[in-house]
């Protein structure tokens, strides 16, 4: 299945068009018309935002209806084939790669809904059907679509790595002619062999995943535990 070819995107065409400016003259009226007003300058942006919002509405409506057709029983092969079939329909109308990822490969997407068992999920990540989903996602990321989905908040993670690894990542990004950010996202979207994840008996460092409320509760619990451990014994 080849998802690489894509028609000309009208969103891209609109944003790549440059305004035509006529020859300069001393006519005050012409000079005034040539200078863009704030309203006219913001109009293309507003039109692009309205277009994206309309496409997102269509995409979300289709995603909602397709969820009712998802096969959640039977063999893993049957459920996986159902995910690929529905994802193909979403691929054709996806306004951003982020929206496609959220509805298909996200934590509450079609794939996780159909294959919720962890062992089966790990097995599915190694099969051809999962590769087809990644091919669709890569094709969407290759198009000149909006880089960020305005309907989903952005998050940032900080990763401590040695300079030698950082240099290697930068060199690879240069060889591939992509940004480090795009390369890292591509790496994060790939399946990780669990045997390649080192095990450690040391206490986990850094921020832990979860909501802000959960983090505050965890921090308060840790403080209370420390206070209890160092509280003098009552006589």
Structural overview:
Helices cover 58% and strands 0% of the residues. The protein is mainly α and 235 residues long. Among the domains are: 38-154, no CATH class; 156-192. The chain is globular, with a radius of gyration of 25 Å.
The sequence of SSEs as H and E is: HHHHHHHHHHH
Query: Structural class, please?
Result: mainly alpha
Distance between the termini: 76 Å
Q: Please estimate the helix content.
A: 55-70%
Outline, from the CA principal axes? globular
Number of strands: 0
Return the average pLDDT rounded to an integer.
77
| Oligomer state of the chains in this structure | single chain
Describe the largest sheet.
none
Low-confidence blocks of residues: 5-26, 30-35, 217-235
From the alpha-carbon coordinates, what is the Rg to the nearest angstrom? 25 Å
Strand residue percentage: under 5%
Total of DSSP H or I helical runs spanning 4+ residues: 11
Task: Draw up the topology in text.
Layout: H1 10-16, H2 28-34, H3 38-67, H4 76-91, H5 97-104, H6 110-114, H7 118-124, H8 128-142, H9 163-176, H10 180-188, H11 212-229
Short description:
Among the domains are: 38-154, no CATH class; 156-192. It has eleven helices and no strands. The chain has helices spanning 10-16, 28-34, 38-67, 76-91, 97-104, 110-114, 118-124, 128-142, 163-176, 180-188, 212-229.
Jot down its keywords.
mainly alpha, 11 helices, disordered C terminus, 235 residues
């Amino acid at each position: 299945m080849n998802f690489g070819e894509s028609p000309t995107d009208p969103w891209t065409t609109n944003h790549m068009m440059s305004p035509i400016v006529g020859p300069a003259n001393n006519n005050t009226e012409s000079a005034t018309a040539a200078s863009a007003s704030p309203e006219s300058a913001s109009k293309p942006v507003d039109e692009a935002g309205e277009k994206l919002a309309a496409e997102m509405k269509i995409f979300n409506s289709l995603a909602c209806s397709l969820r009712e057709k998802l096969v959640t029983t039977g063999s893993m092969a049957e459920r996986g084939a159902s995910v690929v079939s529905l994802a193909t329909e979403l691929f054709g109308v996806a306004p951003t790669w982020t929206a496609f990822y959220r509805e298909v490969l996200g934590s509450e997407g079609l794939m996780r809904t159909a294959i919720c068992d962890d062992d089966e999920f790990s097995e599915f990540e190694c099969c051809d059907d999962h590769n087809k989903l990644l091919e669709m996602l890569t094709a969407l990321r290759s198009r000149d679509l909006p880089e960020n989905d305005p309907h989903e908040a952005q998050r940032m993670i900080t990763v401590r790595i040695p300079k030698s690894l950082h240099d290697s990542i930068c060199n690879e990004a240069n060889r591939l002619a992509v940004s480090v950010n795009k390369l890292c996202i591509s790496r994060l979207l790939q399946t990780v062999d669990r045997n390649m994840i080192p095990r450690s008996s040391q206490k986990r460092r850094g921020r832990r995943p979860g909501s802000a409320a959960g983090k505050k509760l965890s921090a308060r619990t840790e403080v209370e535990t420390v206070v209890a451990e160092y509280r003098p014994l009552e006589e």
